[in-house]
Here is the input.
Amino acid sequence: MPYPQTLEENPKIIFFTDFDGTITLHDNNLGFGEKLRKQGNVDTLNNKVTFRDSFWEMMESVTTPFPECIRLLCENIKLDPYFKDFYQWSREKKVPVIILSSGMTPIIRSLLVHLIGPEANDIEIVSNEVVDKAGKKKDQEDGWQLKFHDDSGFGHDKSLTIRPYVEHFATKPHDPRPTMLYAGDGVSDLSAARETDLLFAKQGRDLVTYCEREGIPFTVFEDWQSIFVTTRDILEGRKSVKRVAEEGIKQAQEGKQNVETVK
Here is the structure.
């Protein structure tokens, strides 16, 4: 459910998350492949190009009919093995899961239903869309193109979905405020990195590099098992967001020290 309907059941936690490389094990690499995609991510991280321009170039290189793209991705993309358990728990505990993606809604929805089941239709997705190219149809060769969510340099500025929740409780300080969490892995998540109470950043990915460079607090995750345990601990009062963040800073510092020692 979109804002403000999400708040109707007074959730204690709202979980925002990226999709490609976060819920799935790897990015889908549609278009010109993994090597060039990674180079585009590095260029975005170093402010040489916007994510919007890099992603548009990659998607424009795809000429496969759109239904065939969905079929190929459903055959090859794998879900993080612990996300399904997390999602089932979130439904039981009334923790909304909101996917904020720079991918495309029809692909994400198809993959979720294929990998999880029909209950995945209940997950809110805020993402880019797909439209027919002029004079063509999506089911034709080179017949579709990306339609960005907004006019930002990201194509989809994920903060625009999170901020209404923050502003809602800023104007209603006496309302019970849910804890807001975000999980991501890469350059498409930079716009969301500062927006929630706690950021989960995937180990070894570009989002960690960005957060360390910019001094943004985060906690590292390897898979959704650790996210599941931490989120459950927060919901049940065994850990505070502050404590998790402090542990995350300590973990990151120890990781840096270990790397320096190896060098």
Notes: The chain is about 40% helix and 15% strand.
